[in-house]
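Structure first, sequence second, as always.
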């Protein structure tokens, strides 16, 4: 028998990582030919990429309008290819603005949909959970409190735990990290994760540079600055945004070691905050959208917190500076508090570290991707049994 065709789709860097791991796990269980939308990690996992996620990866309501032609092209390619190959399942990874619409089109063509990594509708436009109920045969959620939210709305749902648990590890000690990148081991290190999209960088970096200027002046020994460059970002372009005389280290494909070596991380809100929490590093979470997008989005938000770490804990474990609160002065003050050698500064870091331990305990045990693959395999095998008789 020929391999079973499966559509697998991800719309940004973290989704590409999660979907690549799932593709490998599915191939260990089933004879499948996986195609869809993704990026370099899915390609490396043997997924046939029909359209690259760089065509659709965008943040913000107003920003989406500029990308509509490429969004429509990507949607059409995926639907046409699904119609040609007739996969029994389409596995869609987060990215709800695109994937909810794709699910509707696929369902009309008789293809069942699985949501792998459910969107955070409990925090943002919660009424869209009804679309998941209508368009998806199964939803796989990664946070413990999401299962009840989706189940209460009538969605067939399973809690699988977070795919990062057990996979986020440093491979270098601080000493060897410093040797590798010519850093002074005895000096403080601030690691910055400014975002994974150009739009985020444009909003974030000017504020980061302003804050770092203040931090460099206010602390007795200016901290060493490490910038982790997200996959797919243009490193040389990002380097031009920082003063050359700061001797910033721009690091690619070594983010976990860059975080593990840090005294403080400044992290763009998103998956990176969970990675930082799993490494137990003190962090400040930042995020800024365009002013118009922020105004349009504000009435739709249904939660007190923005960062995943605080949402998981249900309280303010880490400082989060979002939109108008994300200023050079506020960020510099928060960073100075956490980098301070005073007893008060040490106490604050200790409290924050205990909060991160609590967050790690709520993320579930290792093996989330394997559990997801098992659930999908069950669904496929049941469908095949029904088709045979």
């Amino acid at each position: 028998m020929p391999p079973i065709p499966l559509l697998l789709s991800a719309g940004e860097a973290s989704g590409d990582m999660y979907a690549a791991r799932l593709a490998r796990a599915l191939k260990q269980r089933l004879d499948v030919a996986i195609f869809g939308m993704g990026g370099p990690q899915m390609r490396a996992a043997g997924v046939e990429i029909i359209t690259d996620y760089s065509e659709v990866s965008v943040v913000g309501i107003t920003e989406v309008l500029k990308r509509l032609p490429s969004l429509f092209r990507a949607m059409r390619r995926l639907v046409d290819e699904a119609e040609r190959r007739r996969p029994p399942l389409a596995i869609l990874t987060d990215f709800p603005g695109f994937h909810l619409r794709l699910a509707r089109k696929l369902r009309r063509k008789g293809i069942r949909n699985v949501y792998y990594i459910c969107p955070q509708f409990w925090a943002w436009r919660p009424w869209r959970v009804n679309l998941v109920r209508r368009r998806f045969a199964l939803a796989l959620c990664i946070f413990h409190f999401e299962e009840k939210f989706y189940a209460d709305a009538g969605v067939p749902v399973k809690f699988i735990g977070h795919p990062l648990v057990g996979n986020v590890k440093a491979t270098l000690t601080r000493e060897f990290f410093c040797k590798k990148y010519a850093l002074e081991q005895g000096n403080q290190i601030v690691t910055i994760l400014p975002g994974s999209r150009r739009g985020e960088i444009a909003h974030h970096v000017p504020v980061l540079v302003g804050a770092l200027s203040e931090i460099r002046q206010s602390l007795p020994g200016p901290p060493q600055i490490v910038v982790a460059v997200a996959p797919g970002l243009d490193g040389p372009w990002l380097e031009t945004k920082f003063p050359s005389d700061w001797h910033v280290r721009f690091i690619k494909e070594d983010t976990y070691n860059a975080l593990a070596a840090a005294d403080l991380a400044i992290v763009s809100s998103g998956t990176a905050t969970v990675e930082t929490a799993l490494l137990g590093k003190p962090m400040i979470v930042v995020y800024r959208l365009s002013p118009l997008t922020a105004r349009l989005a504000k009435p739709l938000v249904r939660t007190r917190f923005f960062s995943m770490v605080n949402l998981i804990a249900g309280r303010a474990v880490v400082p989060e500076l979002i939109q108008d609160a994300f200023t050079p002065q506020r960020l510099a003050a928060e960073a100075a508090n956490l980098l301070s050698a005073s007893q008060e500064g040490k106490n604050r870091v200790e409290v924050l570290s205990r909060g991160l331990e609590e967050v790690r305990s709520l993320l579930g045990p290792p093996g989330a991707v394997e559990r997801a693959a098992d659930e999908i395999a069950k669904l496929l095998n049941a469908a095949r049994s029904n088709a045979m008789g």
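Margin note: The first helix runs from residue 13 to 29.
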